[in-house]
């Protein structure tokens, strides 16, 4: 019996993106309303990354089932890899920003720290799904993307792992 490991990972990626979006939006709102400086670029980048992730997970999770022609194995690999790179850059930038602060207290600082930690977790999830996408692309190297996906049983989540 085949089990699609990517689908639960996609759900977790989607939920974590919503949480990080909420946390970073709270921090950005605090900076924009309570200080004279605008919100930090690292916070803004994680807001972008969260929105990008929501859109990409919708594509990665739904296109194999509802639009197989759009679910080419290289497109899935590219979107997964790019999203993985965005999360890596985002959490490193936020961690560097937080490390450079003279003081960090209160709910806003806690929200920013939580966003950084969840960013690491999100990055690790995308490392796993990108690795699964690479393995799928290598397994179906000679076949075209859509036909290879159908032959491998890819229906949701973008990659298939047989267990």
From TrEMBL:
Residues 7-131 form the MARVEL domain. It is found in: Membrane. Keywords: Membrane, Transmembrane, Transmembrane helix. Its main location: membrane. Pfam families: MARVEL. It is a multi-pass membrane protein. The keyword Nuclease does not apply. The chain crosses the membrane at residues 12-31, 43-62, 74-103, 115-138. GO terms for cellular component: membrane. InterPro entries: Marvel. PANTHER family: MARVEL DOMAIN, MARVEL DOMAIN-CONTAINING PROTEIN. This is MARVEL domain-containing protein. It comes from Lasallia pustulata.
């Amino acid at each position: 019996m085949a089990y699609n490991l990517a689908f639960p990972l996609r759900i977790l990626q989607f939920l974590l993106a919503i949480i990080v979006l909420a946390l970073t939006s709270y921090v950005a709102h605090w900076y924009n309303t309570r200080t004279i400086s605008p919100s930090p670029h690292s916070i803004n980048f994680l807001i972008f990354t969260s929105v990008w992730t929501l859109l990409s997970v919708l594509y990665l999770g739904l296109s194999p089932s509802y639009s197989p022609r759009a679910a080419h194995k290289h497109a899935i690999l590219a979107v997964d890899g790019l999203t993985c790179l965005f999360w890596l850059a985002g959490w490193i930038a936020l961690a560097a920003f937080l490390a450079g602060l003279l003081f960090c207290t209160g709910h806003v600082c806690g929200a920013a720290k939580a966003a950084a930690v969840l960013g690491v977790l999100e990055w690790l999830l995308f490392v796993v799904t990108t690795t699964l996408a690479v393995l799928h692309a290598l397994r179906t190297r000679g076949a075209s993307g859509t036909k290879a996906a159908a032959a491998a049983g890819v229906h949701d989540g973008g990659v298939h792992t047989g267990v």
